[in-house]
Write a structure and sequence with these properties.
Strand order of the largest sheet of chain A: 1-2
CATH superfamily of the largest domain in chain B: Rieske [2Fe-2S] iron-sulphur domain
CATH topology of the largest domain in chain B: Rieske Iron-sulfur Protein
Distance between the termini of chain B: 89 Å
Number of strands of chain A: 4
Strand content of chain A: under 5%
Structural class of chain B: alpha+beta
Number of strands of chain B: 10
Number of helices of chain A: 15
Radius of gyration of chain A: 23 Å
CATH superfamily of one domain in chain A: Cytochrome Bc1 Complex, Chain C
Strand content of chain B: 25-35%
Largest sheet of chain B: 6 strands, antiparallel
CATH architecture of one domain in chain A: Up-down Bundle
Largest interface: A-B, 32 and 29 residues
Largest sheet of chain A: 2 strands, antiparallel
Order of helices and strands of chain B: HEEEEEEEEEE
Strand order of the largest sheet of chain B: 1-10-9-4-3-2
Radius of gyration of chain B: 31 Å
Oligomer: heterodimer
Amino acid sequence: MATLYRKTLNWLDERFGAGSVEEFLRHKTVPVSRHIIWYYLGGMTLFLFIIQVLTGILLLLYYRPTPNDAFESVQYIMTQVRFGWLIRSVHSWSANLMIFTAFVHMFSVYFLKAYRKPRELTWISGMLLFFILLGFGFSGYLLPWNTLAFFATKVGTEMAGSIPGIGKWLLVFLRGGEEVTGATLTRFFGFHVAVLPGLATLLLAIHLFLVQRLGMSVPPSVERAIAEGRTAQRSMPFFPSFLLRDMIGWYAALGVLGGLAAIFPWELGAKADAFAAAPAGIRPEWYFLFMFQTLKYLPAKILFLEGELAGLLGFGAVAAVWVLVPFLDRRAGFGRLTRFFTGLGIFALGYIVVVSALALR
Amino acid sequence: METADPTPRGTVQPGRRWVNLLLGSGVVASIISFIYPALRYIIPPPVAESPSRFVVAAKVGELKNNSGKIFKFGSRPALLVRLVDGSYRAFSAVCTHLNCTVQYRSDLREIWCACHNGLYDLGGRNVSGPPPRPLEIFEVHIQGEDVVVTRTA
């Protein structure tokens, strides 16, 4: 086995220098410290993304993206197709777990200041990937064409429509017209299975290339301890040592996904009806809950702005600071924890958790 | 045979500058002409607004007192409410906040939006929660067996 591997590698090496690829893989190491648990989150998010691609392709075999057929085709997948319930439930559960691991990955990178020089672009590509994941969530939510999704899409696109200047254009672009109709479903389907996967693949390639090229960030506290001679610099090779540990996590994740899908199959709800009232207890996916709940608290007018526009501008401003934090938190580049940005992160995390919990009451 | 370069390296002849300008603007113009149709393609053609100014919302006797019903008015939902005293009122059912469809709450005797907890009174006025404007009000007439709703001009 080992000799076959060697032989294949030699054969490839003679043709295009495969040895340098192996060298490229071996060059990355993972710093070993008490923070190492956080280094598994990116790989876990990637693994769940691959699960999404595979189960998504399987769903495409039966799904039909029209208002007359969408709900029925998902119903067909859930009730008639063998293991259809498993594939769709894994797709939905994995989507939610992926957003969760991406959240944790983002916050751990933020608090460990891994965005500091020279990894600014890694952070920005990661943030863009995160927004694309939210786009996947928002567009995929509509595809079963049920009541919850219908109204969530109405509200979400209406919020986009309240942006000054381009809002109206954006609303018509997203909805494929003035209202949420079959045209919206067709568009969201296109975004979900073509536009976003294309963008995600491109950004993922950039993100992984940068991670590989720059290596893993050592947390500032560990860096200081090494500089002061309190601890030795310890690390392990990513390939194969860390990757094998990653794979244990992925294997466990498959078990968790299968278990969740079997015990809690994903619900379908009632078919969307454009001429029915929004049902009581309506709410978006959990990762949009904090924004949804904030909208409920905002009064109709804040100064001269409409409430939802003020909310949108507020979230937009925080998101902009968040994306640009490697350039704003300059002192982190010298290993000094800047209290303000750590405080901002704690506040953001606290706000999301508390307000989401209030929405679930 | 060698020909001497008449201009020193790094400088551009005035004629060459014109050629660059013409070529460059030609390329830019052609790229715009490629992108423009794609941008126009993204925005769908406008849908003609339904010309119907009136619609039969319900049959007389269909609604009990203190209840409401969503009906289709053109391309949008509207709400017919039968008040406690048996009279009718009709509103646009599109919440002025974020476009959800409102409903009549017989327990509150008000119009409620489930999405963000907005409330309107039976005059269509936004009384609490996030809605910024009142609901549009329609006229209701009884014609024979039909409850007819018309858009106020």
